[in-house]
Amino acid sequence: MYRFISAFIILLLIFSCSPKKLTPEEIAKAKTEIESIANAYNKGIIDKDTKATMDLFSQSPYLQIIGTDSAEVFKSLEKFKSHLEVDWELLTVSKVYDIRNVAIQISEDGTLASILYESPWDLTIANQMMHAILRFSWTLIKEDNQWKIVQGMGQFASVGQS
Q1: What predicted TM-score, i.e. pTM, was given to this entire model?
Q2: For residue 71, what are the domain limits?
């Protein structure tokens, strides 16, 4: 009897400590939430809304963002915010098109995710209008039950050069 109870307690501990796997419905909901983060980022950029944009990012000490220029490596939210504010003085984004070529991966326990996507933008830099395709890759973590960007990068895609 003692062995049976001991085995039962051990099995109970093993199964209660294993991470809960997301259901297909929870995965679909998480993917929708993560895609909305990408759209909210684009909206924050076009609106030059610092607060809305910064609210999408994690407060984690592991935050790292890599921009489109080789000097743009940000390991703090404050430095990234300062850089965005300088960028917004230099450029104007007049239109951001729908995101496309979206790929989202979510860990089985729903605590870590990634999104890869691209989005055409119309922007003006130094009084020169241009149409560009920006590509983004974000890693997201759950903080207070909300998805937050903890790492990522953006790049301008060349057109017709491959």
Answers
A1: 0.83
A2: 20-157
